Amino acid sequence: MKADEKLLMMPGPVVVPSRVLLAMAKPMINHRGKEFSAMYGEIQSISAQLFNTKADNISVISGSGTAGMEAAIGSLNNKSDKILAIENGKFGQRFKKLAGKYGTVVPLEFEWGDSVDLGKVEEKLEAGDIKSIAMIHNESSTAIRNPAPEIGKLAKKYGAYFILDVVSSLGGDTILMDEWGVDIAVTGSQKCLAAPPGLSLVGVSEKAAEEMKNITNRPYYLDLLAYRNSATKELKETPYTPAVSLFYALQEALRIVKEEGIENRINRHYLMTKAVRDSMTAIGIEMFPQLNKYSAYSNTVSAMKAPPGVDGEEIKKALGKRGIVITGGQDHLKGKIFRVGSMGSTTPLNIMNTMTELEFVLFTLGVIESTGAVDDFASDAMKDLYV
Amino acid sequence: MKADEKLLMMPGPVVVPSRVLLAMAKPMINHRGKEFSAMYGEIQSISAQLFNTKADNISVISGSGTAGMEAAIGSLNNKSDKILAIENGKFGQRFKKLAGKYGTVVPLEFEWGDSVDLGKVEEKLEAGDIKSIAMIHNESSTAIRNPAPEIGKLAKKYGAYFILDVVSSLGGDTILMDEWGVDIAVTGSQKCLAAPPGLSLVGVSEKAAEEMKNITNRPYYLDLLAYRNSATKELKETPYTPAVSLFYALQEALRIVKEEGIENRINRHYLMTKAVRDSMTAIGIEMFPQLNKYSAYSNTVSAMKAPPGVDGEEIKKALGKRGIVITGGQDHLKGKIFRVGSMGSTTPLNIMNTMTELEFVLFTLGVIESTGAVDDFASDAMKDLYV
Could you tell me which of B93, B110, B102 has the C-alpha nearest to residue B131? Predict the structure, then answer.
């Protein structure tokens, strides 16, 4: 089966709608001109409604989500600044590494898949002198949603800056940047926005921008203050040559978001992940995340424990042969879990396809004794989407 | 006139052929799979022939040329390492800033537009202890080609690493990375390769890669050693999510380079810039660069002095109204020069268009007394291209 006939059901990159792909076929324009500026303005305006902040707070970096994370950490912290890095998965670990590179890292590690314990966060903050808190909102490696509003409150209480990675949630889950007290929020183009990879959207509060002026060793290409200053000029631009074609794609992807409506889009994501969970649970497959009062299952990706005696990679491979690309666990979770993304332009039909094929694969692997069970559960979860 | 009807004759971004634009309409693939690896391999293989080095030496970063420059400087130098930064234009100045960020900069500044004085370079090297030399090969801000082979020899003589920016020359001028003793060469996708902006191709010698292991504070997203390690694995990949659509475009752009033939392509660039110079000189417009024995006019962009009493920006604007986008001078050169790019997929017809329109604009501005002079000179310079 050819690659371009495969259904991508990973937590990014996701299937990109033809409208978005074809937007990239537009000719080049000068990125120091009015046309580019107008496009940048539209991108800011729509995406600001997803971040729930002001349009001027949005900057776009030509680079992956990791580039945005580095820009956030490196532009807000001096080497002597203490950064509380909350880790309960692969991306939290990456944030911790970045924190150690630009600041003085104060690690707070939980088992991957476990929930963040707010008591332990407060203990670290009480111990004093934390400049910034770095956390992943939607830890896609384990499919858990971490408690952003609560961490925002703690950040406020202890006078810390709050840097939140919303790479795999913005566009598929509610983000209230201003209300939660997030100082910098970072996302990528290739997840719930359903654009191609290569751009990072970063929301920067005025307070954070002000503080960046005090940071002496900000990165160069990833200097977030430079991006913000260029993005708030009358002729909006980027400090370095932007990936113009990807801006075309992002503009079109955001127009689609606007047409669908943000609430509808988030609800679709919710019901699709619920359909995955309900149908998997119905056939005895357990969810991987360990929730507590303040965490939740991810709205955009689901992580299941591999059944006893079965390697998660086998499930992934068998499904791949049938034309559906899901993903496994990372690092020490490899083989132990398998993950299904429900991001971006994924449809209920894609979910039905994936669940029935997954059920068949589990049947052929001897995990379940018959097929035909998942349809009802998945359909029922998504019934509000059938209009 | 609408933006997408304008002819881009700047030193990047350039007109991108439809074949390349449409390549981006292909669906997403998993960037951790065989299809992506095969595409990356093809990109390495063709571009290595432009760098004149081994395919495995090529890495591709999702970011602009500046990102590639930062990756080069930051991955090869510790803070205490002395970097000789040769500056004779805007991009040399940028290299100097980057050098100061990651190492200890030893500046060597010439007037923008002047040639590099090899004697002064050797003086700095003799003073001792230079770890790396950073130079722009084709300084597009002033349209001069700097003496890369000679600097390579000096680097060898004094045991320094040689970092060469070939952003605006690779694909349009001869680059002999291995023969010249270049340790790291950096280019961008949106210049002579005629792909959209957003990727940086970096050639890294084995010697440089070995030395990078000793660098303690390499950038994170722009860690060149990480890119090289990922690019030389059997399953070729990038350390962070790549801009897959831009890889499609680059692959197609490089296929076009291969079809044209590298020698033919470089010759076309040479004859097109010669046509610009010959026709401008014929009507009394002076070239801006001050050449010496070791420098040359750029093979890919031409910089002209604004005629007495005329602002270079006026020429740019008047031509823009007529549908052709050229560019002016940067920083203190603004208004003093105007520049015409001849990069990538630019055709002799585009050059003829631009020269005759430019002549007309100069006529309307009162610089020349009649029109009709440039055609012969431009045609004659490019006669080998009319086959």
Answer: B102
